[in-house]
Amino acid sequence: MTSDSDELEKALQENLKLRRELATGVAEAKGAQLARLRFRLARMFGTFRYAFLGRTRRASVSAAFLELLTLEGAREQYVAHLRQLDRPALLKEIEQLRRIIRDLPPPP
């Protein structure tokens, strides 16, 4: 019983380590490009919104939505999801992450 728990804990730790590596690789590869694109799209959208609607009040953003946008919030939700998985599903998830990391281009 404890060996299964130990193996599950090791698998979870390995999964989190792989996810961190994946997030770092993706952020380095696409971070700057996405930031410029987001800024440009936000300016265009703001210009059109102002042209058609005039001044509008800012919509309130719920705390739950803001938590989803943060990396820490996404990580916590993913960990909660992993804890609900049974052993075969967890091993399948880890294998999928390994495949994704193998297919990433090497950092410059």
At a glance:
The chain contains 4 helices and no strands. The chain has about 110 residues and is an all-alpha fold. It has one domain (about 1-105).
Write a structural description.
- This protein has one domain.
- 83% of the residues lie in helices and 0% in strands.
- The chain has helices at 2-53, 63-69, 71-84, 87-103.
- Helix 1 packs across helix 4 and helix 2 packs across helix 3.
- It is elongated, with a radius of gyration of 20 Å.
- The model has no long low-confidence stretch (mean pLDDT 76).
List the main descriptive attributes of the protein structure presented here:
108 residues, single chain, mainly alpha, 83% helix
